[in-house]
Design brief:
Order of helices and strands: HHHHH
Structural class: mainly alpha
Strand content: under 5%
Number of helices: 5
Largest sheet: none
Shape: elongated
């Protein structure tokens, strides 16, 4: 639920097949999408009350979120979510900008299926069983 790639690596470590890894990864992402779509604004408000006493309205991070949203919209955010934002981050961005729940579900679902298919193939086909092996495969 928290980091998309862990579903694929975890599936490979457990010896899951490609299809099992794909399904577990998609279910993990969609579980967090459902939770944060319905409770995202309340969780966000609680987080800022508990962890940030003086919250800037226009921070560097919030400006980046606005630029990303204006440039790419829900489709771009959904596409980038597994790679850059995590399922929670991408969902909170969509919820923060008032996107309809149905559109969030739909776009996050196709994105999770697409990226889970790619990552599950890589981790199961190449027998990648840890994050270190994954890093070594791509960066060494």
């Amino acid at each position: 639920m928290f980091k998309f790639i862990f579903g694929c690596v975890g599936g490979a470590v457990r010896g899951f097949s490609y299809l099992e890894t794909l399904i577990v990864t998609v279910l993990g992402m969609m579980a967090s999408v459902i939770i944060f779509t319905f409770f995202g604004l309340a969780i966000r408000r609680w987080f800022f009350v508990v962890f940030r006493k003086k919250r800037k309205v226009f921070s560097k991070r919030s400006r980046k979120m606005v630029i990303i949203w204006r440039k790419y919209g829900i489709i771009g955010v959904a596409f980038m979510t597994p790679l850059f934002f995590s399922p929670i981050g991408g969902t909170l961005i969509a919820v923060s900008f008032g996107e309809r729940k149905e559109r969030i579900f739909f776009h996050m679902l196709w994105s999770s299926i697409l990226w889970a298919a790619i990552f599950a193939y890589i981790t199961t086909h190449f027998h990648i069983g840890s994050m270190d092996e994954l890093k070594a495969y791509f960066f060494n």
